Amino acid sequence: MAPPVVSVVGTGLQYPPHKLGPEFVPKLVSNCYTDNVAVLPSNHPLWFQDHILTNTECDDLFKKYGIPLAQDAATQAIEDWGGNLMDITHVVAMTCTSASSPGFDCTLSRRLGLSKHVRRTLLSGVTCAGSVAALRTAYDLLRGATQEGKPARALVIAAETMTVYVRGWLETIVKESIPNIGPTLFGDGACALVLSNGIGVKEGEREPIWNIHGAQSTLLDRPGCVGIRWMPSGRSEDDQVSLAILIWEPHH
């Protein structure tokens, strides 16, 4: 008999309807900062207002725009899975762009119509490792249910509205002259997965798409192993471009 595994049985992905390209960068910068050059695109009045958004205002925008994105992605994943909402036992939610308490996992669970007793776990501020951390957490929770011989289904959801922080990033670049590649890398969106521990599978539930055979995180023995280096690149001194290179240096 095959050993028990945790499987991905449903997926969902949702992006906002607006696409903003680099051509908007000069307009944004010239409107907000004179005699400076920076980055990023958009077409909403908040980018050009006099004051920088507070954390509370950014969180309000996440609730207005980010939670609906999360709901759409979660709905896709649940429909792809084909199971019953009441069979979802766990919710693992991740975000770096909302710091409200209770978290968006509570609002999302209500909107989706999940059980009042669904076990919710919120991961906040885990940055780029967040989605992997959410998968690892859900994996551990479902393996725990497996040890108890109980059926378990986990909705894993990540949602971000990074663009609401663009003006704050630009303000730091202008005032402190510190490069920040964040505005050029990150956009808005949400993705979702449904995981199953394979116990008590009902008719209509999708067969596993992928199996997760293990999950392990490791603390490195020294700082600075993961970071950013700014490196000049070009064919001549007059044709140089600054490249941000993510560097991983393994510890030996």
Automatic annotation (TrEMBL):
GO process terms (BP): polyketide biosynthetic process
Pfam family membership, one: Chal_sti_synt_N
Residue ranges of every copy of the Chalcone/stilbene synthase N-terminal domain listed in the record: 60-195
Keywords: Transferase
Domain of life: Eukaryota
Stored InterPro entries: Chalcone/stilbene_synt_N (IPR001099), Polyketide_synthase_type-III (IPR011141), Thiolase-like (IPR016039)
A GO term, aspect molecular function: naringenin-chalcone synthase activity
SUPFAM superfamilies the record matches: Thiolase-like (SSF53901)
Record flagged with keyword Transferase: yes
Protein name: DNA, SC038
